[in-house]
Amino acid sequence: MTKTPPIATALFVSALLVNPAFADTKIPQKYNVGGYIDVAGSSNYALGAHSAPRPLPRAPDLLITDKAAKYMATYGETTGLMLIDHGKVAFETYQGMGGKDREFFSMSMAKSLTSLTIGKALCNGVLTGLDQRAGDIVADLNTNNLGKSTLLHLLTMNSGTYRAQNAGQPRFRGGLGKRPVSGKPFAGMHWPIRLGQITVGDILWGPGWDKVEGKNPHPPGHGFSYKGADTLALGVVLQRAAGISLAEYFDRHIWQHVRPAGAAHWESDRTGVTVASSGFQARLTDWGRLAIWILAELKKHGCYGDYLRAATSKQVATDGPLKQIFGGYGYQWWTDNVLAPGFWALGYAGQNFGIDPKRDRIIIKFSSATSAPAQRALYDLFSDWNKTD
Fold first, then answer.
1. What is the topology classification, in CATH, of domain 21-94+269-298+339-389?
2. Burial of 59 (C-beta count, 10 Å sphere; 0-12/13-18/19+)
3. CA 320 to the chain's CA centroid
4. Which among 79, 238, 284, 313 counts the fewest CB atoms within 10 Å?
5. Mean pLDDT, residues 171-175 taken together
6. Residues in CB range of 295: below 8 A, 6 or more apart
7. CA distances from 248 to 47, 276, 297 (A)
8. Are 242 and 121 within 8 A, CB to CB?
9. Residue 297: how many CB atoms within 10 A of its CB?
10. Domain boundaries, the chain
11. What one-character DSSP code corresponds to residue 3?
12. 331 near 153, Cβ under 8 Å?
């Protein structure tokens, strides 16, 4: 077997570190730890704690403790970090505004939770198959490629609806809504939705869609292109099929089986439609319980286990800024990480949720900002840990 020359390896690593996927991004720390639901005008679905929370035993791992603590000290924007080994917490700590009782906001990690929910709806018969056309369930989606797309297209970011300009969003001509202080429009969709100025439907087929630049550049199935609209469409499809919101379906069929110890929230628009592409927040320990539950479900036979194994393995080759790090994409999960094992949910400003099913190990990190060194160091931390017994 031919070994890669050291200089080639060094050049490859350097390329990863200057990749746009590792560009500096940040959000105010108060929002990273749950502050969005306190914004005037916002709405959300509240998920309750379980009466008998899943036990979360502790087994500190001295081999990883020093490295994890050093990571926290080096990257002070990290608000919470947890590592779990075979269902036991090996490391857990907080800093800044993070804390045991704070709800950590997912950003785009919620896309992976939407996938979990779609899988349940498929296995429960609410949705009949991955080949269902979205427009056959929600006729309004037939305005664009979203309606022509199957559930499989949407799960694998293959609708061809637009090419994202920033964090999965297109450029909106003239912006959306109005900033409360300056009156100037927002560049993206989330704040106008949060403030009740527009709805998810406005973005997918209404006046917000009318402002999208570069509509429908490719037919569905043409190839991977990361965008929030595909996930939002999955949310409205599930709501129409199930008769309840995505957040409520997730609460009933997944979250209560996770058996969380605390409350959680998922942002909605003013009509009660879940913001499927973002907006979920929960305590770090309950994120850990969710990861443990996913690992257990992955090992089971039957419909949902089959779905999860497909969802968390490569279905399409990636494109865009992350393709040098994640070579594959499943059903709203990132796969084939060249720097660390397992499958991943990712969120803006450095939210990371990684699961290695081969070693039964989990890493969950929340932060208010990230950078190339912070991301690389996190993947190194998880990779090095998974090389130990």
1. Beta-Lactamase (3.30.450)
2. exposed
3. 17
4. 313
5. 97
6. 87, 355, 357, 360, 362
7. 8, 12, 20
8. yes
9. 18
10. 21-94+269-298+339-389
11. P
12. no
How many whole angstroms separate alpha carbon 98 and alpha carbon 157? Answer: 32
**DSSP annotation of 212:** B
DSSP 21: G
Say how far apart CA 234 and CA 230 lie, in whole Å.
6
Give this prediction's pTM: 0.94
Tell me the three state secondary structure of residue 236. Answer: helix
| pLDDT-derived band at 349, boundaries 50, 70, 90 | very high
Rounded to 5 degrees, what are φ and ψ at 150? -85, 170
What pLDDT sits at residue 144? 97
B/e letters for 7-23, b = 16+ CB within 10 Å, e = fewer, are: eeeeeeeeebeebebbe
Tokens representing 127 are: 């949705």
Q: How far is CA 196 from the centre of its chain?
A: 23
- The pLDDT value recorded for residue 68 is 97
167: helix, coil or strand?
coil
Percent of the chain with pLDDT strictly greater than 90: 90
Give the integer Cα–Cα distance in Å for 185 and 178.
4
| 321/292: higher pLDDT | 292
Those residues whose C-beta lies under 8 Å from the C-beta of residue 261, and which sit 6 or more positions away, are 49, 50, 53, 54, 56, 283, 285, 286, 289
